[in-house]
Design goal:
2 copies of one chain form a homodimer. The first copy, chain A, is of the alpha/beta class and 412 residues long. Chain A has 7 helices and 28 strands.
């Protein structure tokens, strides 16, 4: 099979997997999930016309010419119901959020008034009908759909859900994810240090990438380069919705994993993608599972996860936003392209809101995981590019950890 | 006390609080925490010079003139140790990650070779010393500090930690956070619907904002407008590292909360900040707690949390990146300024990597929480601005939910 382009591989993956079904969660446990049902308003809010300010509820006709002195006939606090109708020449003192009394059609804020006596106030400003009144149902109207199925649950959405008193509701399930490391040369976290072995960092980096999406993965451990052992582990892994197989550095997924995985009925969709780093990257499905064969190289593994597994897992969880956020940055130094392959270069971002500057985190040798730890973003170099010159605008994908920045970043 | 500017208020807050002490966590539970100690390498990686490619380990002098045929004296796989020295005219077949044998100083990748017999190979390319060899210690050198105290733990960092086999280590504690709602007009989540009351959405929106920072807050409930009840609740709340008091819409923190909070020994630092929405915003400290008095209005409460509580909580957790990420966007329509106050306008972002376009999420009435639910970002309008025209570049702060986007956003 020829090398797929990155976007073609993403498309193949998204076409081969399906969104999870729904489950019920409590409001308290719903952050970052995706709504599996429409949420409707269960009341009008505000329940009646209310004042948007502390001030005086008036008839707008009465304040057409100002200053004018009006009679205060009532004090209305939030939670109070007005007991009197406002007639010509009258007004009511009113607090923010309190119901506007019958007869009144505008509120004059307290700054534009001067109380003359306990029962009279001078109004200094005119106001048209509706001024500083929040009309009944402005925030929500009983029965209206407030939030559609498919909405990602942010803190603002949770505020709306609480307003509708949605204490329990449907969200899309999270897929179960298993992570399997392969290779004789790998040393497990609990094993003693052996200079002839390589610590299995991939499983933990992948674990954290999965956790960052809100999923708690299962680490199956390390399968040695033995067909029987590998088959046992793969069989176990295929009981999960998604299985991530991280190849050892010595043995590609092609050598040991390929025959075993095909024997277990996995229908492989591709084995290679034209990206760098990222050779080899494999993907297949069974009726119930999706399997990603990730490179054994730590950086390649993380980059492939970002580009291909993140969109897949987010799609399964019902998200519409599947891809890492991109921003434009100025390139601090020239970069080379990798003809025929889309390159992802680890960069740090500096600069301010006027513009980001992207500079390499150091050696791009795919073995140097520290460069990934230091990276804020991945700079994308198109496959057809002949390299990019210093000072040019480039597209970078923001990685985890870039949600916040060190400086305030705006002019107040 | 006069109205502080936003940055002055942030400074007062950060000066008044301290970073938490450290606690030990496992690698599996460490994502998004901040390292409370330096992490050192416990080995050289690679442990010796290893091949970066599948190919043949050669003496570079032997391949100065090509093509040349060399004798294959050994096969070295990853995990194997070479048993023989490469002499002039000899080479070894070598796999990626396998140790380079003595005598050899370069690797020729398999694509540039042609095997002639089981014991001889023709080399088609020259190579200088070091070619396609990853030198011992390239990824990490035993004893070196890999990650400094203060590093935010991203998936890439977790990969490095796993490489150093750091299974348990110190991170800065998360502060405990309590949320208290105040106001007679509020209806609790479990209460029946009462059209004369307002559902207490603030507590849940704040809960989610706190959760988004990785902290599980405690919801204390609703304190009614009664000095005795309020004092009991505030006393309870001051047992937490951070207390968020959300004012009812009718009764500002000034009216009921102020005398009670001062009676309890809270040293108030300010009561107002010159931002919109956001009136009133109060902040004070005891020896053990920080107290934020947030506006009762749902949108104002969320905006104040973003601008003032987020940096505080992140500082307490040891982060250096305290502020929401800002990007530049083109304004889709003119916006008005709020003279003397920095305005934060809820916007949606569209456009592609070439540039974001910011457009208002609809009414900016601070009561309309749906506009916050729909927002991708907060557009910052400086206090001294006379408004901003359509098409101008503006600074926006990215909110939760904008880590991902709907389209791939780059050219491959």
């Amino acid at each position: 099979m020829e090398n797929l382009r990155a976007s073609e591989a993403q498309r193949v993956i998204l076409d081969a997997i399906t969104r999870q079904d729904v489950e019920s969660v409590s409001l308290e446990r719903s952050l970052s999930r995706v709504l599996g049902e429409d949420i409707r308003a269960n009341r009008d809010l505000p329940p009646y016309d209310v004042s948007a300010m502390d001030g005086f509820a008036v008839r707008s006709a009465d304040v057409a010419g100002v200053p004018v002195t009006l009679q205060i006939i009532e004090d209305i606090k939030a939670g109070d119901m007005p007991s009197r109708v406002i007639h010509a020449g009258q007004c009511a003192r009113i607090m923010t959020g309190a119901p506007v009394p019958q007869g009144a059609d505008a509120v004059i804020r307290v700054e534009d008034t001067q109380v003359i006596s306990p029962s009279s106030v001078q109004i200094g400003n005119t106001a048209s009908a509706g001024n500083d009144i929040r009309p009944q149902g402005e925030s929500m109207r009983n029965g209206d759909v407030l939030l559609k199925k498919g909405t990602e649950i942010t803190p603002g959405v949770i505020g709306v859900m609480a307003t509708a008193k949605a204490a329990q509701f449907a969200v899309f399930r999270r897929p179960s994810v298993a992570i399997l490391s392969t290779g004789n040369e790998l040393e497990g976290m609990g094993d003693p240090v052996d200079p002839n072995k390589i610590p299995d960092s991939n499983a933990y980096a992948l674990m954290a990438q999965v956790q960052a999406l809100g999923i708690e993965p299962v680490l199956l451990g390390i399968a040695r380069d033995d067909p029987v052992e590998l088959e046992q582990y793969l069989r176990l892994g295929l009981q999960y919705d998604v299985l991530l197989v991280s190849g050892g550095t010595s043995v590609g997924v092609h050598d040991y994993v390929r025959p075993t995985i095909e024997k277990l009925g996995v229908q492989m969709k591709f084995w290679r993608v034209a990206i760098r780093p990222g050779h080899p990257l494999a993907f297949g499905v069974t009726n119930t599972s999706a399997v990603f064969g990730l490179p054994g190289n730590p950086v390649s593994s993380m980059v492939c996860f970002e580009e291909f597994v993140v969109p897949a897992l987010r799609h399964m969880m019902g998200h519409r936003r599947l891809y890492r956020r991109t921003v434009t940055a100025r390139l601090a130094h020239p970069v080379e392209s990798s003809q025929g392959r889309t390159s992802f270069i680890r960069v740090q971002l500096t600069g301010d809101s006027a513009g980001y500057v992207a500079s390499s985190t150091g050696t791009q040798s795919s073995g140097v995981l520290l460069s990934m730890a230091r990276a804020d973003a991945l700079l994308v170099v198109p496959a057809g590019s002949n390299g990019i010159a210093e000072g040019e605008d480039v597209t970078v994908q923001l990685l985890d950890g870039t949600v916040f920045q060190e400086t305030i970043g705006f002019r107040e």
